[in-house]
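Pipeline run #58 for the internal structure catalog. This entry was flagged by the ingest filter as a single-chain record with no existing model, so it goes straight to prediction. Upstream metadata was stripped on purpose; only the residue string is passed forward. Reviewer on rotation: M.T. Logging verbosity set to normal.
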Amino acid sequence: MTKKILIVGGGLAGTIIANGLCRQMSREIRGGEISIAMIGNSETHMYQPGLLYVPFGKIREHELFRSQRKVLDRRVPYFIDPATNIDVEGKKVTTESGKVHSYDYLVIATGSRIMPQSIPGMEEGAHWFYDLDGARKMRDALDKFEGGKVVVNVNAPHKCPVAPLEITFMLYDFFSEKGILDKCEITYTYPIGRLHALEPVALWAQPEMDKFGIKYETFFNTKDVDPGGKTITSEEGVTLPYDLLVTIPPHNGAQVVIDSDLGAGGWVPTDRNKLLREGSTDVFVCGDTTNIPISKAGSTAHFEADTIIDNLTSLLTENRWARNYDGKVFCFVETGLKEGTYVWFNYTTPPNPGPPSQMIHWFKLAYNRLYWLSARGLL
């Protein structure tokens, strides 16, 4: 009898897993022993990290998109039919059209979504770059901006944890190149008592901000935004005026996860080593969807996906567990428009950012071009 693998989510994590399984179990798929199917929401696949460059005109919009069908191995049926219910007891997934997909093994890779509407006034008063529409609006705002108070406001949880630092340093360089830096005052806010959740990154970032005269306000948990008065206020009672507000909006997981009662906020409780849903032996969770307290980033999804590929292949072909996920994360960090650094870490090794350099910035730009090979599981 054919063993069915069902992947819910057509983003990076799910796509790498589908493509990797096709390579690892090509013989079994050809012989009808294994089948793989994917449920997604869109016919296009977007390179989400590229959105960071849109407000600065550093990437063409068309470079962010490919046909998901062309990125995905041709042996994987792809259903553009959003999942509405995941029944882990009945081992089935129901979609918007009413179709029911059964499975032997399930991969939940439903990602995360921005929730600016969860904070009063944020949708109307702030700019962000976490979706294409927001990045376009921010680009237009920057084109018109001639100076004033700029607040970079960070909310939690959010994906790509170094992005708040990147956008701050890139704004500094953008204002400098535009010739208005002397008319700008940048203030960075963070919800805990340091500039980043990872202490070594926070310790690296603080002197960098001090060097550039970037101000910061920690213990700033956003209460509301007043678009008319152009102020942002924290739960701690601090109010900051702004002429330009750039926010990292709070994120939630997918609605289907919430509706299926699989995890508060859309985050699925996940074994941090096995990447299995807690209490499950047949439901894997990958990427942003997990509740593991590590970076919600593309590299995290990639390293987790590689682990899941190895384990599913071993379980289905040799009836054994292959290996555990070690928490590995690697992130390039733009420290302006022309320099960058990087961080890598795992469950036992903390990050240690090095001095920024132009070469590392070029490496990140090169990776932007190689992303599609990564999605196909070739990197």
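catalog note: The longest strand covers residues 34-40.
catalog note: The chain has a mean pLDDT of 96.
status: ready for reviewer M.T.
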